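Much of our argument rests on the idea that a fold can be written as discrete symbols. Part of our work consisted of pairing the sequence of a single chain with a tokenised description of its backbone. The amino acid sequence and the backbone structure tokens for this protein are reproduced below.
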Amino acid sequence: MTVAALGALLTGCGSSTDTTRSEAAAPPPAAPSFPRQARPGLPAPPTLAPGPGGLTPVFKAGRATGAQAAKTVALTFDADMTAGQGPRAAGGERFDNPALISSLRRLRVPSTVFMTGRWAEEYPQQARSIGRDPLFEIANHSYSHYAFATPCYGLPTVSRQRMRADVERAFAAFRTAGARHIVPYFRFPGGCYDDRALRALGPAKVTAVQWDVVSGDAFARDADAVAEQVLAGVRPGSLVVMHCTRSAAPVTDAAVRRIVPELRERGYRFVKVSDLMKQSAQRQGRQR
């Protein structure tokens, strides 16, 4: 897969046709960092220790090896909507995917939804429903879905001075929608980051989350091709990136309905990112 194609797959949920090329409008005063009160009575989600100089830590799916490796896999779904796509939503374009969420519930698949704050504002009832269902956890995908490093496949950019505020604005949008199962994880739009971005987000106390399996669902029209790409790439401990945006990833629901039973037949168990992170920490502890 070429770099350009990979960029389209990961960031194409509306970025190329955005007419707004500047950063998002100035956000309101920054909310506190990750809202731990959003999970009352629950243990704090696992996180990674900050890097040198307080850099935001990055969790990269560590595939387990050996005969005793736990066959777990985390399906993650990016609920993308950029700050400039309000007119398109008002015109009838759908950035949500209720059928996908219904399938995940019916199949009982624990999942992590990396949601933009703009998506939560556009679909507050869905954000609340997802964020109050113990099957799911909501992680942060920025407010604006603008790039935190350049180049990043043509995405508009957010300035370094506004990076933390952009992330915290998303957390505030989740709280306003009434979500509860919010975790301190962040996915960079397009997966693009550098030390400058990691340093800017250090005070937000989030753990950045990458992936090792690209589903190829963005703009895809063949659900079987998406399913086959995922099935071919998954290994014990894998983290799969998919999308929860109906207009830009229309076959994700159908692909998931094939992926889930086939992986279960292979002995895989589905977990959230928080579970995968906990398992990774336990595995590393045993190896010391």
Summary: The two ends are 36 Å apart (CA to CA). The chain has ten helices and nine strands.
